[in-house]
Amino acid sequence: MTPKLPQPRRARRAALGAELKRLRELNGVSGRTVAKALGVSQSAVSRKEAGEAPISLPEVTAWADAIHAGGDDRSRLQWMAEQAVTETQPLGPWRAEAGASGFQQSIGTLERASRFIANFQPDFVPGLLQTGEYARRVLAMAGNPDPAAAALKRLERQAILHDPSHRLEFIVTEAGLRWCTGPTDMLVPQLDRVASLATLRNVTVRVIPLGADWRTTPPYPFILYDERDDGEQAIAVAELPDQRIETANVEPYRRELDALRRSALSGDEAIAHIMGLARGQ
User: For the purposes of burial, counting CB atoms within 10 Å of the CB of 34, is it exposed (0-12), middle (13-18) or buried (19 or more)?
Assistant: First the structure.
């Protein structure tokens, strides 16, 4: 069974919903009025108040407008909303709780629930594009206690690449593609694999070459999980050396993706560039 990771964000979402309901009733505003302001059904408002459905930052602003919330109430709601959409966890304990293979299974569950996934990885080849040997070495370097088992689970996750109901976008840097976990000749099959997967109709691989005209300050690596069919909001996930950050405030990440796309090669140009790296050019 895949371990369930702690989700205190859900508790904060429930607290936000309860406060939104309290203020709505205190100000004598009906659920129908709020629903109209948000452009949702009245039952959706009830689910948000109960913490059963996600609520975005723009929806909280529209809710505050609809109930004529005062300045102090608006500030409190904004703070609660920001807390409700963001989760920060120490990375080591989070991985330890899930275990080597359980961590990969948990990520796989999130991937399968997301019809669109965008991954920016400037430092090395993204996990879903890795060969078995490359994955094992990366996981070993990260201190995984059983890199072989974790690599196997990572390879199992790659089945999503061949599922046309999912769209996947990868933005990588040339420096990341050149990064090697072992003998330099092991990069050739890895680069060949990236170039091959880039030909799939539902997979887009973009490459930011050395000397590119960057349209944004290079951000930390992150993954956007969007168009979810599990009833949850889109989220962006970033892993720093010591912690994992998960947020439903995804608009800044969408803007970063747009800027990164303008910095990158795509389509046949990207594939040709990757193949050139494989040939040592």
Answer: buried
Supply the CATH number for residue 37's domain. Answer: 1.10.260.40
Q: Please report whether residue 111 resides in a domain.
A: yes
Q: Count structural domains, the chain.
A: 2
Are 139 and 180 in a shared domain? yes
Q: Determine phi and psi for 240, rounding to 5 degrees.
A: -95, 175
In tens, the pLDDT along 16-59 reads 999 999 999 999 999 999 999 999 999 999 999 998 887 888 88
Residues 103 and 239 in one domain: yes
Both 133 and 60 in a single domain?
A: no
Map tokens 């956007």 to a residue: 224
CB 256 within 8 A of CB 93: no
What pTM, to 2 d.p., does this model score?
Answer: 0.79
Instruction: Say whether both 151 and 43 belong to one domain.
Output: no
Where in the sequence is the domain holding 157, given as residue range(s)?
A: 99-278
